[in-house]
Write a structure and sequence with these properties.
Layout (H helix, E strand, L loop, with lengths): L1 H18 L8 H21 L6 H24 L4
Length: 82
């Protein structure tokens, strides 16, 4: 499950980067909930993991949190949030 968290975080960051391009900012309306779900999955994966190495899960948490934060900033800057 830790690997799933990392992959989900990478996909969230890729979606956020695409959403930063002009005229593609509305992609953040899809990416923010996707990243939020990934954040929840990553937290569950880290908490329930019995492995010693939890780096992939922590990376997933960080990547999803960054994607949510920067996606919200992009929506605010572009006037996408009402």
């Amino acid at each position: 499950m830790l690997t799933l968290a990392l992959v989900w975080g990478i996909l969230a960051i890729v979606g956020m980067i695409v959403g930063l391009f002009p005229c593609l900012g509305s992609l953040n309306w899809i990416n923010i909930p996707f990243s939020g779900i990934g954040l929840v999955i990553s937290i569950i994966a880290v908490v329930t993991s019995k492995e010693e190495k939890k780096g992939a899960g922590i990376a997933g948490i960080v990547l999803c949190a960054v994607a949510v934060g920067l996606g919200l900033i992009r929506l605010l800057a572009g006037g996408g949030v009402l």
